[in-house]
């Protein structure tokens, strides 16, 4: 298996002529068919276009009913997804599950909460300016991860909430190339809430086959005072058992920062670059938002982590400081998304998370009308 063609960091190849064709799936062309766009006569925009008729934004979005799964795309034959744009209200970012199936596989290669896949795991918008993922105001989410397939692709969204959800999306893909030597794109989500005592958080485990690990996103909720990022990330590769081949030196080091992400006088400082960043810092507000929360990504685009037999485990420690300059193991809320390419369309993966396991506890409460009695909390 050869490495899939990741997006070029420059424009050197854009002028090359290739015998490829571009297709695009959206609510205005559900199957991406040639000449099939803008033909809708009914849809979520029909009322707005009642004076204009067909071709005038009659079907720009879809409504996914509570508890249902919607097929975003169902593609036959070989191809490669090159871009996904999608948006919905922020209340839905952790209640929607994004899945992708390659070549007719029964098990999804991608199963990740919608917001986490686009580096917005906390349901609060953060601008992301990276090569693989771009999150733009206000909730315009973009993926440029190449997703090749040989005989077919199916992308779905499951609405795990109790309310209907409106989603706008466009999935662009190419056909006509040779994808027989490309790896399949995988993404897996795991959450420790809270992390077990003296146990690292597992990012990935039990992966068999040849491939390359290409990215990590973590939504990290801190459950204590003090610094939280001394923990090391470890990649157990191929025949590794008790000790890893790759061992990092600290959480902020792995995500490209240093010294607590702290610019003196400014404190934690957000940053977003093509390959790594901490685009989100959620600070306590003195009322309901009581703890610090962070969003961090690391894309191994120029430095993929290659393996030939598998990845037995990838994990990360949660460490702070205690008295006497001793490490303090922490029990934080850590939700990670691992991204990798593999020589097969399915892999060992965790159980599908329940709605309760997905839920974000930012502590926000409904704001009462002026003059109304404030709502009581369950503990009151």
TrEMBL record:
Lineage, top-rank taxon, reads Bacteria
Disordered: annotated segments: 26-46
Q: Which Pfam families match?
A: DUF2961 (PF11175)
Record protein name field: DUF2961 domain-containing protein
Q: Which organism is it from?
A: Microbacterium immunditiarum
What taxonomic lineage is listed for the species of origin?
A: Bacteria, Bacillati, Actinomycetota, Actinomycetes, Micrococcales
